[in-house]
Amino acid sequence: MLSLSFWLCLLLNLVVLVFSAENFTRDDFPPPSLFVFGAGTSAFQFEGAESEDGRTPSIWDTFSYPVGNLQGEKGKKTCDGYHKYKEDVQLMADTGLEAYRFSISWSRLIPNGRGPVNPKGLEYYNNLINELTSHGIQLHVTLSHSDLPQVLEDEYGGYLSRKIVKDFTEYAGVCFREFGDRVLHWNTFNEANIFIVGGYDLGITPPQRCSPPFGFNCARGNSSTEPYIAAHNILLAHASAARLYKDKYQDRQHGFIGINLYTIGFFPYTNATEDLIATQRANAFFIGWFANPLVFGDYPDIVEKNVGKRLPVFTKLESEQVKDSFDFIGLNHYTTSYIKDNPSSLKMDIRDFNADIAVELIVKGDASMTDEYPVLPYGLVEVLEYFKQNYGNPPIYIHENGQQTPYSVGLNDTSRINFIQGFIGGLLDAVRNGCNARGYFVWSFLDLFELLGGSQFSFGLYYVDLDDKDVKRYPKLSAKWYSRFLKERSIKSDGAIEVEKNMSGISQSHLSQ
Ligand code: NOJ
User: Fold this and answer.
1) Whether the CB of 445 sits within 6 Å of ligand 1
2) Distance from the CA of 350 to the center of ligand 1, in angstroms?
3) pLDDT at 329 over 80
4) Which amino acids are annotated catalytic?
5) Which helix (H) or strand (E) holds 103?
6) Mean local confidence (pLDDT), 401-427
7) More reliable by pLDDT, 3 or 239
8) Distance from C-alpha of 306 to C-alpha of 183, rounded to nearest angstrom
9) Does the pLDDT of residue 465 top 80, yes or no?
10) Which domains can be identified in the chain, with CATH numbers?
11) In 213-260, which residue ranges form alpha helices assigned H by DSSP?
């Protein structure tokens, strides 16, 4: 017999078929002055050159090598953006990108985490920014993409200490001062929520902290308390940097500042009241944990209730400072999950973030390590609707959305085209329905060094030949599709583009791995 979830999925898919925009062009969206299309990268994943020109390690370096999950990958070139940025910016311009999202490596710009600025770091980012500006590409810059300087982690435990607020604000201030004449969109933290869950509850991402019975054998940490403490300090650090920007720079630089969250489209597993309430709870924990303080000045009631004394409390002043400390929210979105009530976890003596939510998460097509993501744009539509209904429809950038494929897929990435096309169609529906989305960035512009998968998996529109001494770039089918969408402004949903047959020049080893 077919399960209820099967019928539920079928129904939702049919709804999407009926309601998703199918034939659309770039011009169906507002013009670039109001809505931008771009693609993104992040410093650690793009730059390489990890010990060049004065850069010091970040917590991501420590996680990746030599004890992390990427043993043996050290020394392997990433796409080497540090040296090839000019060529890449040219590629962006040729593709027709209206905007580029990238991050600054804190430990490249300020190697000691605080204090003197590294002239070489300054020079690199000035060069990159000037190159982008001269090609008319809008800049969206993230200040922290999971790559806190290791020196601050060692000195005082990074985000577990209030000291981070001052150091992050000073680092942000250097960026506003040095680059703010050309950068109009600042994002403080990437995936603030999932950075915390991965790094302080499960211990599967930097700084790899967790405690039994939760997580995966961390050497240190406390999964019950640390996620909430670190999240609290990230909110305070964000608010402090945003205040500096608004007080000192915004009037003359005319830019915007926001924060980025990871989102999952949550749907009740059944229409039983328990599952509907459990779905609200999942949203309150994943989104409300950050969005409620940012919009209302405090955590959601259900988070306060379930976490209890382990949840830090905002003073009146802090609450005022966090509230309204953003001009936009950035969202990363890849998947959808079904939510089942799981009240038993609340009976546990010791609880972590997951136990506090008290739900069972049934992921639809988990692409975390192997598969490709299923194309479920209604999840994104639901998330945008959630922000519209619950948070007063703030300006939103879709900072990341894209398809993971094994590196071996090479250039013929039709599944990536289907994914991007499906989500852009869903986004158009949401925009037509009054959601305040202002931009969409494909993740990623080119193949990068993945946090969990190193160079086994790729998200790029451009293929990077890691076996070639010049790490040459090649357009995948998806790059051609996106470029046509951006430039010709007339692509239809069935607008298959000719499959690239000429793969000569690419080391076959990577294509057939
Ligand atoms: C989100 C992260 O921000 C990015 O660094 C990563 O590459 C993608 N997810 C894909 O895993």
Assistant:
1) no
2) 30
3) yes
4) 191, 400
5) strand 99-103
6) 96
7) 239
8) 40
9) yes
10) 4-511 (3.20.20.80)
11) 226-244, 250-253
